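Hey,
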Amino acid sequence: MSEPTPNWYALFVRSRHEFVTSEQLKKRGIEVFLPSVTRKRRWSDRKKAIVCPLFPGYLFIYTEPSAETFLNILQTRGSVSFVGQEPGRPSPVDPREMETLRMMLAGCDELDTYPHLNEGAPVLVKQGPLKGAKGVLAKKEDHHLFLVNIEILGRSVGTKVSAEDLELI
């Protein structure tokens, strides 16, 4: 019988544990890929560039498909479960998708990490001077800026709002 072939698997981790879990797995000798991007965050008194996971709550593991290995990974601090089509059975990620993702991270200055924000979607402004305002995403522009229409008396009022300040309703 042949050796099992290693594959990439998506691992769901506890909220805000992506980097901790990644480091713990690396210490165990497991190959981990945590795609991350630098984003500008705004606080009331300052702006700062911070490194964030591209897919919050997920990281990728390259390993052979064995129950023992999967159990070892799941016993790591922050690990919750593997992503799979069937309950309890991790599904491999297409290696071409992983390679494309790596190329995108290496070759693109900015990635659109807000796929759930589509034109016509109802949105809520979650921070900034318009915090709490509800509107409709009217137009997506460069640099993750969005034109949000807010209907008042049958007329639209639009402004540019950063994607990091919006959430889908």
